[in-house]
Amino acid sequence: MAWLCPHCRTRFTEPQERCPHDKRKLVPDLSGQEIGDRYTLRELLGVGGMDSSVWMAWQTSTHRSVAIKILPPVEGDAAERFARGARIASNLNHPNITVVHDYGRTVKGELYLVMELLEGTTLYRALRKQPFGLDRTVHVVDQVLRALGHAHRRGVVHRDIKPSNILVGSESLIKIGDFGIARFIEDPPESWSVDGDLPNNEITTTRQLCGTPQYMAPEQIGFGNIDHRADLYAVGVATFRILTGRFPFQGTAHEQFRHHLQSAPPSVREVRPDLDVPPEIDAWIQRAMEKKADKRFASAEEMRTALRQIRRRLGIAGAEMEDSSGTSAPISSRSAASWAGEAASRNTESFRPAEQPRRRGVIYVAIGALLLFAGIVAWLLRPVPPPTVVIRPAAS
Q1: Residue 369: inside a domain, yes or no?
Q2: What would the pLDDT profile of 171-203 be if each residue is shown by its tens digit?
């Protein structure tokens, strides 16, 4: 048995808990092991919460590289949450949603999740390395709304939209991941392949709060019915965050809950007058963040159409928008340092609004698209696997 340091990748043959070089907790070296009789683990990409690890693997049946997240054996609610998130995401086939290929248990009882291996970084990380201007912000939000429109039409509400759950891929193709706390708005479509019980009203029945406090719609905190418009509220918060570099509401999780329920969101133009954000964009965010869901945009499609109309009227750069074929027009990819799960495990994201570009680069990222979401305040959520984003720098 051997062990690896997830940071410096030093391999140890003698058992020890931490790397003597950087004090990181060691993980078992699983390279060469077979998972599910069809995947061979090749390289450690990073680690996540609950002693999970993410590996680049070779799928022998299709001769392709994939990312596999492996978690220790769990039972009960945690296991069902894992399976539910995997089933939901694997049935969402859309270019702006991270692909989940497979999931299951190893012979030792460990849970595993097989995902596509992509070039890119999280929006959270991209914003820390390269702040976005208005045109790139509109490009990102446009594609996020495309993805949500698809999920909502399939009866799924995400419930945890935020920059650390959004991937900026090669040529700035945007993908959303982390369907770990997603739920069906109504009964799942008959055409869906879903095994086992999928609770339809988990939040509104049990009142367990799920999500990230800074992005939660009032109905996620209070006792309203939760539907797709909770995701639209989160998109409004995320847009505010990208443009200003701060959250609409400040304070502890409890204080932010109170603001989401009672306080009108501040104006982007008041928070950052130096950015000269058009009033139309400000009004668009304000509508997305209305306290009552029926005062928000009725759908992701309506919200996206309104944003595109603003873009055309204001002449916001169109080269970054979706082309007529439905794909994304290319723009530059952004560099990022090696990073494994940091951003996704934080509830208080930190990045700057923007001005100057930096150097380009390409990295490989495996988004832990499911069941991998942020730990919030201990009293707020029962323990669940935090979101894992794993980045592997390309060879120079």
Answers
A1: no
A2: 778 998 766 555 655 443 433 333 333 333 333
Backbone phi and psi for residue 160, each to the nearest 5 degrees, phi listed first: -150, 50
Higher pLDDT, 49 or 361: 49
Residue among 85, 52, 87, 44 nearest 69 (CA): 52
Q: How far apart are the first and last CA of the chain?
A: 31
Contacts of residue 266, defined as CB under 8 A and 6 or more positions apart, other chains included, come to 248
Q: Please check whether residue 33 lies inside any domain of the structure.
A: no
Is 187 an annotated catalytic residue? no
Residue in the block written with tokens 């058009």: 278
For the question of whether the overall pTM of this predicted structure is more than 0.85, the answer is no
Quote the Cα angle for 91-173-47, to 5°.
70
> Which domain range does residue 159 map to?
123-353
284: CATH: 1.10.510.10
Q: What is the average pLDDT score of the chain?
A: 75
The helix (H) or strand (E) run that includes residue 388 is strand 388-393
Q: How many domains does the chain have?
A: 1
Does residue 114 have a pLDDT over 70?
yes
Contact 250, 318 (CB under 8 A): no
Measured in whole angstroms, the distance separating CA 104 from the mean position of its chain's CA atoms is 21
Point out the catalytic residue in the list 22, 77, 135, 160: 160
Domain assignment of residue 67, yes or no: no
77 falls within a domain:
no
